[in-house]
Each structure stands twice: as structure tokens, then as C-alpha cells.
Amino acid sequence: MKLSVPGRAAATAVAVTVLASTALLTTGTAAGAVSAPDSANSAAAVTLAAAPDLPVANVKAHLAQLQSIATANGGNRAHGRTGYRASLDYVKAKLDAAGFTTTIQQFTASSRTGYNLIADWPGGDTNQVIMSGSHLDSVTAGAGINDNGSGSAGILEIALAVSRAQYQPTKHLRFAWWGAEELGMLGSKYYVNNLSSANRSRIKGYLNFDMIGSPNPGYFVYDDDPTIEQTFKDYYAGIGVPTEIETEGDGRSDHAPFKNVGIPVGGLFSGADYIKTAAQATKWGGTSGLAFDRCYHSSCDTSANINDTALDRNSDAAAYAVWELSE
């Protein structure tokens, strides 16, 4: 994440009580606005979609590969470095074998070549696109396994789960791995800036996952589009995990370019270098008085810098949102 400051329940239905009708994306405005919950509805039981329970071991296996890539390439996976391109090649090979249509988008930043990877799942209404993304680059200081191997591995495993299930949603699914986020979200900005107005309007929601396995984790939900926000909150309510609104990296990750052109956005975050309070430690566990991720932007952001429970919960929450919002 670019900052300016230093087990789920079974995959079958789970009932929770929420103040809304079922969260579904609609065509909305020209920018693809998401319909907000109907305030006239009283509290009603909503059944969570039967999204797959992602094996956290699979997500961790991707992280192990990213760690190996960093180790073999000077200790990082940064923009313009060999470790970044090797990371992209690893993800692309997995997606190609799973039946996705992949595209590499090339751009230049800081006199180095950068790459975005876009993967489309065949089928669904291409006028209604649900897009999920994570930045794949690290800082030069380290391997970037939490920031942001965690988000990248999570959405890769979601994409592979889509393939395993041969999921055929009503809406079209697109996944993205961004380059040069650590330089100021340059890859995602390039993607959005090069979309025609018609193609922008086809994206009905963008979900961002940046740092979802912090070692002293919190459970933070973006408070941007209300329906996407509620979708994540529904999931966490269903597994009994309280959430807070994300403020630490607000507007400082790859959702910002989408939000700035009117595309509905949302996402998850488990904390960077802000300090966990006593109240947060009481409700989430972990250690108060310490950063959510003490290895943020440091050489110690390795495969040892991951909380498996947070990685598991957030990956499953992301999968739930992809299934729920694309139905």
C-alpha cells in the first residue's frame, strides 16, 4: 500500500441479520453506480451466498512462490525489477492454465517498464463487469509478502476457485494485478485513464485488496460504495467478526483511480503502521501498542510476516463478495 505516513463458516448458506435487502449491483448511472440499500426495508434475514471456502494453504502456497521469486531476484518484486516480472509471469501462467483470457498492459514509469495483468473469465454480461484487483509490486526494501503479496495471492486463489467451480455468474468477472502502486498507483491509473467512457461505464464495481494478512491484524472495510461495504459487513457478521471503517490508507491504494472517475469501489485492509489500540486488541486479539504490521515497507515483510487467520478470513470475505455481487 502506498501511504503518506510512516475459518469462516461453511460455504453453504449462513444466516445473518442486516438492515438491507440483498446487496446487488445495478446498472445505475452512467458511471455504473451501485444501488444503495432501501432504507424502507426493516431488518431482515439475508442468506450469504454459497461462495467457496478458499483453502488458506492454497493462498499461502502462492505467497511462498512470491517469496521464492523475491529471494531469487535481489530480495524484492519492485516495479521495473526482474522480481516483478517473474511475479507477473507466475500469476499469468496459473490463470492461463485455468481458462482465463489474460492481457498484459505495458506502461512506463520512472524510466522503467511496468506491467498490469488483466484476466477475464469467459461469460457473463460484459456490460456489467465486477472487477477485483490488487497491486503485485513490492517496495525495493523487501519481498512485500503482506504488502501486497497477500492481496495478490488472495484474488489469484479466488480466480482459480471460479475456474474450479466453472462458475457462470450473471455479470462478467475481471481480475487485475497492478504494477507500480508503490510509486503512486501508477499502473491502475494508467488502466483507468486508458478506458473509454463506454468501458468505464461497464464496470459496475471495483473491489480492492491491499494488505489482508497483517501479523497483528485489524478487520477494516472501505466505506465507499454502500452496497459493496454492506456486502463485506454481512460476511463478517456471519462469522462473528466485528469490523471498523478503513481510514489509514483511505484513497491511497488502487481503488482511488476508479473512485475518481465515478466507478463504485470497496475493499478490505488489515492494517499497516498505525498502532493497534487496547479496544481493538480486545475485540480482535493481538497486541495493543504495536503496529498492525511492524514490517510495513521493510525487509522483514517476508512469508513470516503473515497472520494465517486474517489471511484466511479476508480471502474468504473477498470470495464471498465476488460471488454475491456477480450473481
Topology pattern, helix = H, strand = E: EEHHEEEHEHHEEHEHEHH
| Fourth-tier CATH superfamily name | Zn peptidases
Largest sheet: 8 strands, mixed
Rounded to the nearest angstrom, the distance between the terminal CA atoms is 30 Å
Uncertain runs are 3-48
Helix-strand makeup class? alpha/beta
Beta fraction of the residues?
A: 15-25%
Write down the domain tally: 1
Number of strands: 10
Assign the CATH architecture.
3-Layer(aba) Sandwich
Apparent shape: globular
What strand line-up does the widest sheet have? 3-4-6-5-7-10-8-9
Could you estimate the helical fraction of the residues in percent?
A: 25-40%
State the helix count.
Answer: 9
Per CATH, the class reads Alpha Beta
Mean pLDDT: 89
CATH topology type: Aminopeptidase
Radius of gyration: 18 Å
Explain this structure.
- By secondary structure, the chain is an alpha/beta fold.
- It has a single domain (15-326), classed as Zn peptidases (Aminopeptidase), CATH 3.40.630.10.
- 35% of the residues lie in helices and 19% in strands.
- It contains nine helices and ten strands.
- The strands form two sheets. Strands 3-4-6-5-7-10-8-9 form an eight-stranded mixed beta sheet, sandwiched between helices.
- α3 (145-165) crosses α9 and α6 packs across α9.
- It is globular, with a radius of gyration of 18 Å.
- Mean pLDDT is 89; it is low at 3-48.
